[in-house]
């Protein structure tokens, strides 16, 4: 990767990088990562840390082994989050750095006002030279408000603050694909997330984490729209963070799109949960993609799902390939009644629509 100037950086530490072979919190590696972050801050970089490890830490303290039920996981998270923060606080104190705990759930991202509040809080902490330490609020999160994995949480955080770079510390050296003989090889740089790249991501395989390569590809898509580079590097090898920032070829770097979405469009694209789908005809597709128009009911062929007015919906072509997302002006019932009709207002206004 050619050397870039990265001033605001999000670093995500996965469970595999914070857990030793016995399943306990790996304090030596945590301290090493903290020391490398402290070096970045000394070099005038702004750094947000997104961390896993709360459930592992709590389960260790409670003697639960690997928690299986939701109450066990939430209890472990409640105990583990404070233990984890205490270790980070002690690690960063050695470098005269203050840390701040920031716990997020999907609803904090989905609500526009709370989204802006979170952004303002993180920006203020960074201006005050504080290290924000972000995690999902596993103690109270349920399926409806869970982001689900810290790869996506880190990408949403990077998008939220307009970071230049997201670094995912994991248990592999980068992203691998296979050549024609079926031999895996490390891909140093990916400029476009193609179907081949998505197929190579396979399925989640990490035992300690909740992600795998699929969630890293999802994170890369979020970062691409935000103009944020994403790097996957090994979380147990020294100085790789510095090497990535210096432009050295380590791990895998996903290069973002040349033109990034503005903040509100990023929120529309990735901050909300999709509640339905609008299948549109070729004329409406052309109006959206080539002319920047609003979506009108006359161009809608079918409505899928049940949703209220104001819900985020997928806008798909006739093969059901997603081309855009937007906030519906009408409920699914109301839209179904005006499909194909003219002069009945807009289904999705262009200001509330983002092309993907």
UniProtKB/TrEMBL annotation:
Swiss-Prot/TrEMBL keywords: Amino-acid biosynthesis, ATP-binding, Cytoplasm, Kinase, Nucleotide-binding, Proline biosynthesis, Transferase
This protein's pathway: Amino-acid biosynthesis; L-proline biosynthesis; L-glutamate 5-semialdehyde from L-glutamate: step 1/2
GO cellular component: cytosol
Residue span(s) of domain PUA: 276-349
Protein name according to UniProt: Glutamate 5-kinase
UniProt enzyme class: transferase
PROSITE patterns registered for this protein in UniProt: GLUTAMATE_5_KINASE, PUA
Cellular localisation: Cytoplasm
Native organism: candidate division WOR-1 bacterium DG_54_3
TM segment ranges: none
Catalytic activity, EC: 2.7.2.11
Reactions this protein catalyses: L-glutamate + ATP = L-glutamyl 5-phosphate + ADP
Protein family (similarity comment): Belongs to the glutamate 5-kinase family.
Molecular function GO terms recorded: ATP binding; glutamate 5-kinase activity; RNA binding
Residues reported to bind ATP: 12, 170-171, 210-216
Keyword ATP-binding: yes
Claim: ATP-binding is one of the keywords in the record: yes
GO biological process: L-proline biosynthetic process
Function statement: Catalyzes the transfer of a phosphate group to glutamate to form L-glutamate 5-phosphate.
Annotated signal sequence range: none
């Amino acid at each position: 990767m050619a050397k870039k100037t990265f001033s605001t950086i999000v670093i995500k530490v996965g469970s595999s990088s914070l857990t030793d072979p016995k399943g306990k919190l790996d304090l030596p590696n945590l301290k090493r990562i903290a020391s490398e972050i402290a070096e970045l801050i000394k070099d005038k970089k702004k750094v947000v840390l997104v961390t896993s490890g709360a459930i592992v830490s709590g389960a260790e303290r409670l003697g639960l082994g690997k928690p299986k039920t939701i109450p066990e996981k939430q209890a472990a998270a409640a105990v583990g989050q404070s233990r984890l923060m205490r270790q980070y606080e002690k690690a960063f104190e050695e470098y005269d750095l203050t840390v701040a705990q920031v716990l997020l759930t999907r609803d904090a991202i989905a609500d526009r006002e709370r989204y802006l509040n979170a952004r303002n809080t993180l920006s203020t902490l960074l201006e005050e030279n504080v290290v924000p330490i972000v995690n999902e609020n596993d103690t109270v999160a349920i399926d409806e408000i869970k982001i689900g994995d810290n790869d996506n949480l880190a990408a949403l955080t990077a998008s939220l603050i307009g970071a230049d770079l997201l670094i995912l510390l994991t248990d592999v050296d980068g992203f691998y694909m296979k050549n024609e003989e079926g031999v895996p090889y490390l891909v140093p740089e990916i400029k476009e997330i193609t179907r081949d790249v998505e197929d190579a991501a396979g399925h989640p395989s990490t035992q300690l984490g909740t992600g795998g390569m699929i969630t890293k590809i999802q994170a890369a898509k979020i970062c691409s729209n935000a103009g944020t580079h994403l790097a996957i590097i090994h979380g147990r090898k020294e100085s790789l963070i510095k090497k990535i920032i210096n432009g050295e070829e380590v791990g895998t770097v996903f290069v973002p799109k040349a033109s990034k979405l503005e903040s509100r469009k990023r929120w529309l694209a990735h901050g909300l949960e999709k509640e339905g789908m609008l299948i549109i005809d070729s004329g409406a597709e052309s109006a959206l993609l080539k002319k920047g128009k609003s979506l009108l009911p006359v161009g809608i062929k079918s409505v899928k799902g049940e949703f209220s007015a104001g819900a985020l919906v997928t806008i798909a072509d006739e093969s059901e390939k997603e081309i855009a997302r937007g906030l519906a002006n009408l409920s699914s019932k109301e839209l179904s009644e005006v499909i194909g009709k003219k002069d009945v207002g807009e289904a999705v206004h262009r200001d509330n629509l983002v092309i993907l």
